[in-house]
Amino acid sequence: MGKKRESIKVNDKKGVGDGSGQTSTGLILGWSKNHFTKLHEEIDNRWIYVEGGVQYPQPVKVSIMLVYLPRGLKARKAVYDAIEDKLRSRRAAYPFMVMGDFNEILQVGERKGRQESGRGMTAFRDWLEQPHSHHLTIAMISF
């Protein structure tokens, strides 16, 4: 069986920003067509949402959302809302994975270098503590 790949790209040009002075070089979500079959996709300039079937060991329907959250709190909350909309609109109880760069920390000790806390960290923590969160497992990579 040959390796067949598929991907979705968003904002792959430098200079795309949210007015905060930060720029995005884009998002790319890719997969092997031998292991994942895309059934539905939605794309925004800050996220990619895909529903499909994983072929391991039996076919299972999953949702995957890749996000990039900007530094601006207002723009960040718009992405939180998009994630919430996807969580609420799923048509069945199947796995939902959200991954990407949330551009935020939950606790001051998570970040190396500049240590700051503020409204962004509080908003992120509040969002994660909402009722949907008991279904989410949080896995983080320190930076």
List keywords for this structure.
33% strand, single chain, alpha+beta, 19% helix, 4-stranded mixed β-sheet, 8 strands, two-stranded antiparallel sheet, 143 residues
Topology:
Blueprint: E1 5-10, E2 16-17, E3 23-24, E4 27-32, E5 36-43, E6 47-54, E7 60-68, H1 73-89, E8 96-101, H2 119-128
Parallel strand pairs: 7-8
Antiparallel strand pairs: 1-4, 2-3, 5-6, 6-7
Keywords: Endonuclease, Hydrolase, Nuclease
Region (Disordered): 1-22
Organism: Medicago truncatula (Barrel medic)
Explain this structure to me?
By secondary structure, the protein is an alpha+beta fold. It has one domain. 19% of the residues lie in helices and 33% in strands. The strands form three sheets. It has a four-stranded mixed beta sheet with strand order 5-6-7-8, with helices on one face. A two-stranded antiparallel sheet has the order 1-4. A hairpin with a 5-residue loop joins β2 and β3.
Q: Please bin the fraction of helical residues.
A: 10-25%
Query: SSE string, helix = H, strand = E?
Result: EEEEEEEHEH
What is the CA-atom radius of gyration, in angstroms? 16 Å
How far is the N terminus from the C terminus? 38 Å
Q: How would you sum up this structure in a few lines?
A:
With 143 residues, the chain is of the alpha+beta class.
